[in-house]
């Protein structure tokens, strides 16, 4: 009897010890979609657990559409995950609400030098770095070589030639469209318009933080955007950029703006694909342009495991792991040395990497991206639906964005 | 002090009362409380008591349209949207129920089972399905209309403001229609056959029978289902959000969509405090309409 009692007590102590010392849990919030899959994330979690015995990684999944709401509500109730994958465009708002904290200490000079400078601009706010980039994208035009050959078209070098190509290819009666464009109320519509805006030298905010989305360069960009949309598929407001690949794969679209992984997908479907860097507009100083979009990993200010969270982020963003991730999912390398790897020297990677030097980040200095995004989509819609002229639409957008920036 | 006999039912009701307190009364109390605060997720720990300011804001704040407040425009849009959807559900519901009740229809049980499908499908999935069905490029609706030469070019169901407004409430009606049909059908089946036989002997035609017998006797059912449907339709969010996200422009931005936008997207202008005031207004409005319905039902008027 006494022996039995001792055995039970010892067993309980052992169990308590296991619970007390083994599992240190790290909660990681991960978006799904846009290339991110549960399988990939689970594999990463398992690898980290394997290399860090006693650590338990709990991945929490949510669709990209709901990620922002998930973050703000979990922060609001004091239950934010330790590590949060975020669209870097949200950093100013999250920093202002105290949801994330600067992680300058985590970024050694060696780590800093690994990345393109523009990559840091996407995660910097008020002179501090708030996150480490996990995925980066640039976009170029993917065009259908057969359609260009059929109409004896040269690869466009400027906006006039771009418009001419779209106009020449466009044959809606036979279901052939010069260009495919997105217009749904969604982030990718704004990013698409930003390409035209930046390519013409326009910006949402200037370097001093003034709202300049209604200056002459921006108005001209929106004007061109509308003109080009006349040669796009019908009802572009129904379309997300993410779905345009389905249309392009039919072989009946001249060109459209997208990621490298969709260029590869179209090739697999038998489309003879060419790639074309976005040419600078009539008012631009640069020959090409792109929008630098990044997703990043930030540490929650509410985290009680900040050290472990930092370890996780560092583990994920070594050169080796980053390259593996980018090659698996088809993202543009955010690290300079990564871009030098042989895998990124193919013809289809080159234009995406070359445009980085001409790129400008998606949301520098914008304090409330979600609201600004709605305002810009509204301006685009009002022009596409002939409710407003570009100037009127952008003046209205600038008025609202100015209030949002106060 | 209640006698033991009288207090017994309270013990049985207690779990329900506790559940209602936790899941209905407390959240409602929090919404009412928040509606008096300037609070938003951007700064969750810093909320300020503002009294009735949020309620004044409802009628003063203008965003895209300089002529009408953001809230009022969403509210009026909601009334039209709910009215359209409800009317469609009622008319088609009565019509569908009469078909299912007809003696001339064979295989009624099969049709009834099939008719319930739209209601059984998760609303979000139904909306996704319609988004592709109505797509101007790949959608089957445009494809059929084009092949039958009814139209020359695809119809942009979801990308022109007026059409998107109509399309969203038609899809909402499609989802809610089976409930309407099944409930009205049960009402139809409770009307004694002898009433119809007597009317026919007296020489009444089909229309006269419908307006003098069927419709009056269906009144209680119609009032009940339209009340339920009104509340559900007023709160309808998933369908609009998935189909149009409130756009194009603000064409389908009904009150629930506007509340969401003010809670999560326009936090600088709005925030959860103002969204709570919008919610309280909506709850109050729907409650008043419901009370009116219930009173009408009690009085037996139509």
Automatic annotation (TrEMBL), chain A:
The record's annotation in SUPFAM superfamilies points to:
Periplasmic binding protein-like II (SSF53850)
Q: Output the superkingdom of the source species.
A: Bacteria
Coiled-coil parts of chain: none
Kindly give the Gene3D superfamilies that the UniProt entry links to this protein.
Periplasmic binding protein-like II
Q: What is the name of this protein?
A: Sugar ABC transporter substrate-binding protein
- The species is Petrotoga halophila DSM 16923
UniProtKB/TrEMBL annotation, chain B:
Give membrane topology per the record.
Multi-pass membrane protein
Keyword match Kinase? no
Cellular component per GO? plasma membrane
Listed transmembrane segments? 12-29, 79-101, 113-132, 163-188, 209-234, 275-294
Q: Which UniProt keywords apply?
A: Cell membrane, Membrane, Transmembrane, Transmembrane helix, Transport
Q: Which InterPro entries match?
A: MetI-like, MetI-like_sf
Q: What is this protein called?
A: ABC transmembrane type-1 domain-containing protein
User: Which organism was this protein described from?
Assistant: Petrotoga mexicana DSM 14811
List the taxonomic lineage.
Answer: Bacteria, Thermotogati, Thermotogota, Thermotogae, Petrotogales
């Amino acid at each position: 009897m006494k022996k039995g009692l001792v055995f039970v007590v010892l067993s309980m102590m052992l169990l308590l010890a296991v619970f007390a010392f083994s599992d240190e849990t790290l909660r990681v919030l991960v978006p799904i979609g846009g290339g991110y899959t549960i399988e990939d994330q689970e594999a990463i979690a398992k690898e980290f657990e394997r290399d860090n015995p006693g650590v338990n990684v709990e991945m929490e999944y949510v669709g990209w559409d709901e990620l922002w709401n998930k973050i703000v509500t979990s922060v609001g109730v004091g239950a934010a995950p330790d590590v949060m994958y975020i669209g870097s465009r949200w950093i100013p708002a999250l920093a202002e609400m105290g949801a994330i904290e600067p992680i300058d200490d985590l970024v050694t000079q060696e780590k800093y030098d690994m990345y393109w400078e523009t990559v840091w601009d996407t995660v910097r706010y008020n002179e501090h770095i708030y996150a480490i980039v996990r995925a980066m994208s640039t976009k170029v035009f993917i065009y259908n070589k057969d359609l260009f050959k059929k109409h004896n078209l040269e690869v466009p070098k400027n906006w006039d030639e771009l418009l001419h190509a779209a106009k020449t290819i466009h044959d809606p009666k036979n279901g052939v469209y010069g260009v495919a464009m997105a217009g749904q109320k969604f982030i990718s519509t704004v990013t698409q318009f930003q390409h035209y805006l930046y390519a013409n030298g326009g910006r949402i905010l200037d370097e001093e933080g003034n709202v300049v989305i209604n200056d002459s360069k921006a108005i001209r960009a929106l004007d061109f955007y509308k003109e080009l949309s006349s040669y796009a598929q019908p009802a572009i407001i129904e379309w997300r950029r993410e779905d345009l690949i389905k249309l392009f794969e039919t072989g009946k679209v001249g060109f459209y703006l997208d990621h490298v992984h969709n260029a590869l997908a179209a090739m697999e479907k038998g489309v003879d694909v060419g790639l074309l860097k976005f040419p600078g507009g009539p008012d631009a100083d640069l020959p090409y342009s792109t929008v630098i979009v990044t997703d990043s990993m930030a540490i929650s200010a509410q985290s009680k495991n900040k050290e472990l969270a930092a370890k996780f982020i560092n583990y994920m963003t070594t050169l080796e792991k980053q390259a593996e991730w980018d090659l698996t999912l088809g993202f543009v390398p955010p690290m300079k040395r990564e871009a030098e790897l042989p895998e990124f020297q193919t013809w289809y990677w080159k234009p995406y990497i070359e445009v980085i030097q001409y790129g400008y980040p998606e949301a520098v200095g914008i304090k409330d991206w979600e609201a600004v995004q709605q305002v810009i989509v509204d301006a685009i819609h009002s022009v596409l639906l002939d409710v407003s002229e570009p100037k009127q639409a952008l003046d209205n957008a600038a008025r609202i964005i100015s209030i949002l920036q106060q | 002090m209640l006698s033991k006999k009288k207090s017994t039912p309270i013990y049985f009701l207690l779990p329900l009362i506790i559940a209602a307190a936790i899941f209905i009364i407390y959240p409602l109390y929090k919404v009412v409380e928040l509606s008096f605060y300037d609070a938003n997720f951007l700064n969750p720990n810093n909320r300020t008591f503002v009294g009735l300011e949020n309620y004044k804001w409802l009628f003063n704040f203008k965003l895209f349209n300089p002529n009408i407040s953001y809230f009022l425009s969403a509210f009026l849009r909601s009334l039209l949207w709910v009215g359209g959807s409800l009317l469609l559900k009622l008319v088609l519901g009565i019509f569908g129920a009469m078909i299912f009740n007809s003696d001339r229809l064979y295989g009624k049980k099969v049709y009834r089972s099939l008719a319930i499908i739209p209601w059984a499908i998760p609303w979000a999935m139904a909306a996704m399905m319609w988004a592709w069905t109505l797509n101007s490029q790949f959608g089957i609706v445009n494809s059929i209309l084009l092949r039958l030469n009814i139209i020359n070019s695809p119809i942009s169901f979801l990308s022109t403001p007026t059409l998107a407004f109509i399309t969203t409430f038609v899809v909402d009606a499609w989802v809610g229609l089976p409930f309407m049909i099944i409930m009205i059908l049960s009402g139809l089946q409770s009307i004694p056959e002898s009433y119809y036989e007597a009317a026919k002997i007296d020489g009444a035609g089909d229309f006269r029978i419908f307006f003098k017998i069927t419709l009056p006797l269906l009144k209680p059912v119609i009032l009940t289902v339209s009340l339920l449907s009104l509340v559900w339709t007023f709160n309808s969010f998933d369908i609009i959000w998935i189909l149009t996200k409130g756009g194009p422009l603000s064409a389908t931005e009904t009150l629930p969509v506007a509340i969401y936008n003010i809670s999560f997207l326009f936090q600088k202008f709005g925030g959860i405090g103002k969204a709570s005031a919008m919610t309280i207004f909506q709850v109050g409005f729907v409650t008043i309409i419901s009370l009116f319905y219930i009173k009408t039902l009690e009085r037996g008027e139509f």
